[in-house]
Structure formats: C-alpha cells, structure tokens
Amino acid sequence: MYCLMSGGSGAMISFVVCLVVLVVGYFTYGRFVDNVLGPDDRDTPAVTINDGVDYVVMPQWKLFLVELLNIAGLGPIFGAMQGALWGPIVFLWITFGTLFAGGVHDYISGMLSERNNGQSISEVTGTYLGLTMKNIMRVFSVVLLVMVGTVFAVGPAGLLVEMVDPQGTGAAGAFSATTTWLAIILAYYFVATFISIDKIIGRIYPAFGICLILMAIGVAIGMPLNGYATPEIWDHLYSMHPEATPVWSFMFITVACGAISGFHSTQAPLMARCMKSERQGRFVFYGAMVAEGVIALVWAAAGCSLYEVTGGLNMGLAEVLKSGQSAAIYDVCIRTMGSVGVILAMLGVVVCPITSGDTAFRSARLTLADWLKLDQERMVDRLKLCIPVLGVGAFLGFGNTLGFLSYTVIWRYFSWTNQTLAMIVLWAGAVYLLKERKNFWICVVPAIFMSAVSATYFCMAPECLGMIPALANNTAVAYPVGVIVALLFFGLFWRATHKREATVA
Questions:
Q1: Are 225 and 388 contacting, i.e. CB atoms less than 8 angstroms apart?
Q2: How many structural domains compose the chain?
Q3: What is the CATH number of the domain that holds 91?
Q4: How far is CA 268 from CA 57, 177, 415, 453, in A?
Q5: Low-confidence ranges of the chain (pLDDT < 70)
C-alpha cells in the first residue's frame, strides 16, 4: 500500500496547516521575539569596524539568502528525509521546533554577536556563561566546523566522480578519482575562506539560495500534481520508524537543520558582521530559520508521501535511504519534477554542501582569530589560520578517501555535539535577557527542552554512552536522566535570577 492510497489523491491538510503556521509564526511570534530584544539604531560592527574582509555592509536581501544557504545547504533535506521515517509526526517537530526553538536560537545568536562587535559564538557565550564555558565552546565550535567542512568536501567529491564516470571505467582520466575532485574542492575552500566575504559568498551564493528555495517549491507542487497524497498527522499519531527507533530523543536529534541546529550559531556571526542595521535581524536570522523550516517540511512530506508503507511502517523510504541520501534526493526530484528535477538535484547535492563547507571553514578561521586575538585584516594573518585549518580538513578528507580514516569516525559525534551547542547558546541567551531585565522565558523554555534532548540522547545513543550494552536504547535510564539534567540546568539558572534580584535590591 502506498501513502497516496491512504488519503486520496492530493490530500495534504496536515502539511498545509503546518506550512501556514510557520508563515504566520514568523509575523507573530517572530515579531514578539524581536520586540523582546528591542533592536535600535546603534551603529553596527559592519559600520564601525568595516575591514573590507569580514566586516562588509551587504544589502538585506543578500544577507537573508546567504544566511539561508549557510545554515541550510542540504541539512534540512537530509535531516527531514531521515525524520520522515517516524511518519508525519515529524511535521510537528519541524513546525514548532522552528518557531519556538530554532528561530529564537538563530536570532539570539546573530543579534548577540552583532551587539558584541560580531564576535564568534564561542566568545559571545563566554561573555554570559563564564570563562570555562567559553573555552568549552571554543573547542566545540572549531571541531564541529572542521567536521562539517570536511564532510561537505568528501561527499560532493564522490558525487562528482559518479557524474563524470558513472560506470567506473576511468574514462574521465584524473577526474575519475575522488582525490582529484577533493583537491579541487579544498583549493576552492581555501580561496573562499581567505578572501573578502563579498567577493564570492556575497556575489554568487544568493543565486544558490534561490535554487534551494526553487527545489522545495518544485517538490511541493509536484507531489499533488503527480497524485501523491501526504498522510495526515491525526491518522498516524504513532512512530512509523521501521527499526522502532524511539521518537524521544532520536527524532529531535536527527532533524536538526529544519528545527534547531547549533551549527547555525557558528554561521550567524558571518552575517552579523555585514548588517547595516539591527532592524534587519528578524528577517535575516529568524526569517532564514523559518525558510529553512519550510524547506524541511516539504522534504519531510515528500519522504512520507512517495514511498511504500508496509504494516504501518515506512519501509519504502528506508530502502531508498539505504542507497544514500543523495540518491534519495535524486529520486524525489525526478518523481515530482521530471527532467527539471534532475538539474535542480544535481545543483543541490553538489553545490549546496560545498557552499556550507566553505563557510564552515571560514567560521573556524574567525573563531580561532577571536580566540587568539589575531586581527584578520592583513593577508599574512589570515594565512596563519587558513593554512592549518584547511590542512586539518585535508588530512581528514584524504584520510577518509584513501581509507586510513573512517568517515563514520569523523561524523560519529556530530549529531549530539550539534544539538548540545544549540542548548548552550540558548542558555547564554537566557542569561543575557536576564541581565537586561527582559523576557528570558523565550530562551529558557527551549533551553530546558534541548537540555533534556541532549542528555537523553547522550545516555542511550550507541555512539555515546549507549556503547555500554546496558545503556544502549535503555529508555528506563535515559529518560529520567534527561529530565534530571534539564531540571538541574533550570535550577542553576533560577538561582542566578534570585542572586541578581538580591543584588539589584
């Protein structure tokens, strides 16, 4: 039985309702969050510092599209397709996670960076959570960014080999080798990381951001036109995951981009250094996150709609994903858009990861520059950081390609690290709002939620403490631990609020 047979051709009420909630949420809750922070007419770092390299004024529409591409890439597609294994209940996480967690996280990280001279998120976090957390975040951020940059070089390199030499005959000569394409991509990364942000990123990336949006629009329109119906949430209020993987907290970790992702906080300072006015923040940061949520919602709907359901489980989607996430993207695009979809899919699976990879390495350079207090206006100072950062990325990338370093090892702890980073940033935002005597609950509530998610996952996931047989997928232990950790962090914050009230009094 196929999903399109379960609800009648074209039925997709849940999808449309969630889409409307996301759009309305931007104009309502997004405005509420913006009013809490209170953007004003102070001079921004792009104006006061303006070094012509990283601090450069760019127009608002470019800021939005570059921010979207930086935080998205293929994240909201890969994560959403994996999340669709749980069924249409994933729509709820994408919708409400985007509005109340991801949007707030991206907005607060971007605006706090802007109000702290465009500093990297590790430095901003340390300002509000102390030196120890600053050092932890420095290490977290650099490791995360180098991992992301490396993975987004290796993946496209392999896909380019498949495109130029699909039969594996070596007919394309040197271009039939993954190492050749990897070297080319890393060389591009070096240039994009080194030169001024408005030379390549500011000029070309808005076009790729538009392509990412067009791909989602094409899939959304193509589903009903080709007779695919999206299953409704109220008919599937249960997990459809073929391997019976628990919804809590695995779904909330799997669907990161498109709901909430700590990686976004490492990218927000790039645009915080290019804003002409604080009043652009809601559109650039919160707006880009909502746009990413819409993209994720579309791809989650595609994952739920196009593939066979067996015994109430998404077996068909699971089989497609076994061929690789890129293969799944091609399949969805071809089914919904035909030959046009092939072109968009080729752009998506090759270009989008590369555009996220180079900004990841650029963010790593800037994080290290802030850490080491090394000015980046001079070329020689940028080279001091570009060479070692890209050198590590090259070692990891070629190590995976040549077989002496596992891709799995590179990526093993990314998911947990990513969401834990988001949790820390939300707590930092809560402390900032507390100090400013503003409504800190907009950060506290999602911070508590993500604290429980991260602690639960860390306790039971096979790549974390779950490597211990007694803890692997052990909900009886992990669930109480998650609740206890979340309450502990909230208790520490609540204690800080009372200390501040006593001091003010």
A1: no
A2: 1
A3: 1.20.1740
A4: 15, 35, 19, 23
A5: 1-11, 402-413, 500-505
